[in-house]
Write a structure and sequence with these properties.
Length: 146
């Protein structure tokens, strides 16, 4: 008379799946953040390099070259600004994904606990039923011997 209720197992499985999805999403945002950081470092290095280049060429003329250098530095600064905003947005998404992972883990723990509790209840019911059957057999044997 095992009457195991697989509902809790299904819920635990779904919760595990949700955790895996949340972990994958968090990792995706972490990788995106890292790419942005690398991009920011490259842009900063280019800004330093072209600022130094601009200072060197100012000394010996070439207004066209100076204007081009200034325009390029302005474009780099604009790109740096946009990259910063992108990082802020991804950081917010990362925070949301982290919260979602925490909630998914909590749900998984809850579902695992309920599943385990159901298994323990079923086991206890089985043990109780077996005890009753043994007692009935003992009583029946006792009555037959008399």
């Amino acid at each position: 008379m095992t009457n195991i209720n697989p509902v809790w197992d299904v819920l635990a499985s779904q919760a595990s799946s949700a955790v895996l999805k949340a972990e994958a999403r968090l990792e995706k945002f972490a990788k995106h953040k890292q790419k942005i950081v690398v991009r920011q470092e490259k842009i900063s290095a280019l800004l330093v390099e072209y600022s130094n280049h601009s200072e060197r060429i100012q000394g010996y003329g070439g207004s066209g070259e100076i204007d081009n250098s200034r325009k390029f530095i302005a474009q780099l600064m604009d790109l740096q600004n946009r990259t910063h905003h992108e990082y802020v947005d991804v950081e917010a998404d990362y925070g949301k994904a982290k919260k979602a992972l925490i909630l998914a883990n909590q749900e998984k723990l809850k579902a695992d606990f309920l599943s385990q509790r159901e298994k323990e209840i079923q086991h206890q019911m089985l043990v109780t039923q077996e005890k009753r059957e043994l007692e009935l057999q003992g009583i029946t044997q006792f009555n037959l011997k008399r």
